[in-house]
Amino acid sequence: MLHLFRAATAQNIGWSDAICTALQLVNFWQDVAIDLRKDRIYFPRDEMARHGVSEADLFAARADAPFRELMAFQVSRARALLESGAPLARAVAGRSGFELRLVVEGGLRILEKIDGVRADVFRHRPALRGPDWLLMLWRAAARYPR
Fold it and tell me: Against a cut of 0.85, is the pTM above it?
């Protein structure tokens, strides 16, 4: 898309990469339970080990302290990536820039919801609902003033 808008600078591509990577991570953490039902695990093994979480713990849907710590680490990483790429939303003009701001805010809102269920994504899949969209619209307008 950056090429279509003649905005494919090295800086913008870096911001875009950060946003795209973060959104994929957000999707992984949002869908842990769904992916486990398909025998898919997207947590890096070394990070699971560092936090004391095994595959058996995941399949048992243990949202215990070690799992919450692992998720806090993953959520923090995704949030940092989204925030590091957020300047792209100001660099792209017009409707596309605003839509990009909503995308960033959507990712951040899902991460807030993961925090809100204390990382128990086994029993509470975070999803955006009507009130979330109003909040995201407000944040997209307020956080990125022109």
Answer: yes
**pLDDT recorded at residue 52:** 98
Please give the share of the chain, as a percent, with pLDDT higher than 90.
83
64-73, long-range: CB < 8 A, 24+ apart: 67/119, 68/118, 68/119, 70/43, 71/29, 71/114, 71/119, 71/121, 72/119, 73/47
Mention every residue, 6+ apart, whose C-beta is less than 8 A from residue 105.
136, 139, 140, 143
Cα separation of 116 and 144, whole Å? 25
Locate tokens 């591509």: which residue? Answer: 13
Q: What is the DSSP string of 86-134?
A: THHHHHS-HHHHHHHHHHHHHHHHHHHHHHHTTT-TTT------HHHHH
